[in-house]
Amino acid sequence: MSDLLADYRDETLGCTRCPLAASRTQVVFGSGDPRAELMFVGEAPGFHEDQNGIPFVGQAGKLLERLLDGIGLTRTDVYIANVIKCRPPGNRDPHPEEIEACESHLFRQIELIRPTLVATLGNFATKLLSGKPAGITRVHGVEQQVVLGGNAVTLYPLFHPAAALYTPSMQKVLEQDFARIPELLGREARSSESQGTLTTPASAQALEPAHAPAVQLGLF
Prior knowledge:
Blueprint: H1 2-12, E1 31-32, E2 38-42, H2 47-52, H3 59-70, E3 79-82, H4 96-113, E4 117-121, H5 123-130, H6 136-139, E5 144-148, E6 151-158, H7 161-166, H8 170-178, H9 181-195
Parallel strand pairs: 2-3, 2-4, 4-6
Antiparallel strand pairs: 1-3, 5-6
Helix pairs in contact: 1-4
């Protein structure tokens, strides 16, 4: 499976599906354990990510690493990706047409990695993968069952680490929500062992949920 992911990464490096290809330095595909149980999905690469080709290497990434350390994990234990693989100019919000052009890359990553828990960071990832319009302020820390990449997974919305950089009081909220991750991973492991696979409620979302309007997206 890791070979398939590596092959798919190679395929995406020359992607020209949207105008962001003209302004990027490089495609920021994702990084981490290709067989990770826990996958984080953020918004889009920033300046440092565009330069290094690795997601979450700026200040938000440093905070993410500290949060992972607080629950006994490191970047090498998880997989980290973004909804958008190329940096929007000036770090602006991704446009709906850019999300639409890029989303199949993310769904293919999820299909190949087969995580049991997908933690969405911020509104962009949460709304795309849940298929629901509710903002992150309302749904953070509340897990839900969805179907992604053909598999039932637990979706766990979290505030984007960048939000805590702008609003320090949010860091405590992030820490509290992160503290539940080991419990959720344990729950999914027990479910897989007892049932052979994860079950999905009838209300689980489809593979490619509808987009929310751009004005409703963002970090908060």
